[in-house]
Amino acid sequence: MTTTAAATTLRRPSPVRVLTWLLAATATVTVAVEVLNFWYAPEQGFALGVRTGWALLRAFGFVLLIGQVRRGRAGARPFGLILAVTTVFAVGRLIVPRSGVPPLPGLIGFALLTLLCVAVTVLLYRSQAVRQALNRHPRRLVLDRDGFALRETPPRRPETTGRLLTARVAALTYSPLMLLPALIAVSTLGGGRLHLLPVVVAWLGAGVLVSYVVLLGTFFLLRGRDWARRYLVVVTLAVLAIQLPLSWWLLGLDGLIRDGAPLLAAAGITLYALRPGPGEPT
Q: Is the dihedral of CA 237, 239, 240, 246 positive or negative?
């Protein structure tokens, strides 16, 4: 007798297997590029350490994505998109030093990482075989005549489009993208800048608050509430209005570029995904 897991493995098409290997390679290259960049960096301070640690966490994100792809999860596509895009920005901002020319090994690794992220995105959104394979829902504990069992259960909410899932995943990255530069700003409070401590604390508080605000909006967004689109647009603009000026003021132009670009990428994906698709009301 063939089990369901074995049958799923046998039916897994070649584009899905290629995608799995690409994700593993992307995770490996991400770690290698970050190690090279930290090794060649002229200033191995607190800010670089925090940004490097955050970028290394993305390698673990690719490992989680491999598990979602192997299980055929529908949420793997938006998760892969935002992970690929923000990884390119997160690693790219560390390759460029404050002064001088980036090291050649780092540039080569970044170019390879960019190609891998592009290939992952193309497979996720352009391959019909991958699209058909990523259509399963998480297994939940259900009660039936035979007792409790883990079964794949579609969500009770209305069917969610890929655009809304993408908007949800992209918006959920706002909080960590705000907390990262706020933590780095803590290290800049020495040398007569201690009076800026309330501003940094407020920045940290805003980053935590945004996570709950976004969770509320995406909860209703996936349930078809049209006002949730406008709500998330306002939240996105508010996040940009907080993050960009504070990054420039407390971290300088270098911080604005390094920490503002990933947030702008996530905000752009969110706003684009919130646009009504074909057949949806405007």
A: positive
